[in-house]
Design brief:
Catalytic activity: sphinganine + octadecanoyl-CoA = N-(octadecanoyl)-sphinganine + CoA + H(+)
Function: Sequence-specific transcription factor which is part of a developmental regulatory system that provides cells with specific positional identities on the anterior-posterior axis.
Strand order of the largest sheet: 1-2
Shape: elongated
InterPro entries: HD, Homeodomain-like_sf, Lag1/Lac1-like, TLC-dom
Structural class: mainly alpha
Order of helices and strands: HHHHHHHHHHHHHEE
Largest sheet: 2 strands, antiparallel
Strand content: under 5%
Number of helices: 13
Oligomer: single chain
Helix content: 55-70%
Subcellular location: Endoplasmic reticulum membrane; Nucleus
Membrane topology: Multi-pass membrane protein
Number of domains: 2
């Protein structure tokens, strides 16, 4: 059964235009061609990336965070309560008013104490500034080096300047060593991101990021198998050209360097819009969707490849709307930049709430001295002034 499934999956009419097939990509006369089995190299590369990342975050990112003044505030821990812990883990992290009343009866906590417990418990699960800074530093380093390496690999290639050259001689295109390593390293990196998604900072666009990583891995793998390598290198270069600006803006944001963060984000927004909303759809997708049909009849691989590109373009539009909204708000009102693409939900309940809790507790002590004893978390003289979230 597996043999039949494999035979069906690798049939030539799915992967190549009519009249071409796997035999055309057999190595001969000193010429080397891309093969599907080459993709297994990406797995050990992904593992190496995971190891190098741990070393980088400890040896480079952490000292850099200290140098830039990133402070990792200690958070107050919620006291262990099995009833509340079970509710928090299995039902919801944000109980309704009705649920709060019920939990108050079960635990003997006042409403204020219960709200404080859930707030502290949520903050325990939130990533620290140091963790976010280290993650941004790692991505910044990779995207910057990948962009430089990609540019160096393509700077002397004719298809960087004339996109129609992507299809010159297709699919019998020799793989250059620079293309091989560019592909395997990019594929290994995105595979490592997918492997580490459970432990990375969970962002507002978490689902979109998963779709992006999966689509990118499929796109890189498929383009390698059918020798769409020239198009693939251009697509990777376009994507790497703006992402390191975003990660550097995040680093300065976590360090509290507001002006640097704001202006770098504006540069990122400009480059993102030009590369993802103009160059990518009107140049690259045009040359993968329109031009190839003048050379050969459309086949499954043609539709599949362009379908993945359209998925990426939809994500680009989704992110561009958020990015433009932030940029306009900054340019018109000079407000602080908060990246709605990734960071808004991370900072809604930050360490500032710990200060509020301390003020709340100190205020409660003052009220006790002024108004007498408290009952169920509220002063006897004024039971209507309880704080709610």
């Amino acid at each position: 059964m597996l043999s039949a499934l494999s035979e069906w999956f690798w049939q030539e009419r799915l992967w190549f235009p009519e009249g071409l097939g796997w035999a055309d990509l057999e190595d001969r006369d000193g010429r080397v061609y891309a093969k599907a089995r080459d993709l297994w190299v990406a797995l050990p590369i992904a593992l190496i990336f995971l190891i190098v990342r741990q070393i980088f975050e400890r040896a480079v990112a952490t000292p850099l965070a200290s140098l830039l003044g990133v402070k990792d505030t200690a958070r107050l821990k919620a006291p262990y309560n099995p009833t509340l812990e079970s509710y928090y883990c299995n039902i919801t992290k944000n109980p309704t008013q009705t649920s709060i009343a019920s939990l108050c009866k079960q635990t003997g906590y006042s409403e204020r104490q219960l709200q404080r417990w859930f707030r502290r418990r949520r903050n325990q699960d939130r990533p620290s500034l140091l963790k976010k800074f280290r993650e941004a530093s790692w991505r910044f380093t990779f995207y910057l080096l990948a962009f430089i390496a990609g540019l160096a690999a393509l700077i002397d290639k004719p298809w960087l300047y004339d996109l129609k050259e992507m299809w010159e001689g297709f699919p019998v295109l020799t793989v250059l060593p620079s293309q091989y390593w560019y592909y395997m390293i990019e594929l290994g990196f995105y595979s490592s991101l997918l492997f580490s998604v459970a432990s990375d900072v969970k962002r507002k666009d978490f689902k979109e990021q998963i779709v992006h990583h999966v689509a990118t891995i499929l796109l890189i793998s498929f383009s390698w198998c059918v020798n769409y390598i020239r198009a693939g290198t251009l697509i990777m270069l376009v994507h790497d050209s703006s992402d390191y600006f975003l990660e550097s803006a995040k680093m300065f944001n976590y360090a509290g360097w507001r002006n640097a963060c704001n202006y770098i984000f504006i540069m990122f927004a400009a480059i993102f819009i030009v590369t993802r909303l103009i160059i990518f759809p009107f140049r690259i997708i045009y040359c993968t969707w329109v031009y190839p049909v003048t050379i050969y009849e459309p086949f499954f691989g043609y539709y599949f490849f362009n379908g993945l590109l359209m998925v990426l373009q939809c994500l680009h539009i989704f992110w561009a709307v958020l990015i433009i909204r932030i940029a306009v708000r900054f340019l018109t009102n000079n407000e602080k930049v908060d990246d709605e693409r990734s960071d808004k939900d991370e900072t809604d309940e930050s360490e500032d709430e710990e200060e509020e809790e301390e003020e709340e507790e100190n205020g409660g002590k003052k009220d006790m001295k002024k108004n007498g004893p408290v009952q169920n978390g509220h002063t006897v003289h004024n039971n209507n002034h309880s704080k709610t979230e």
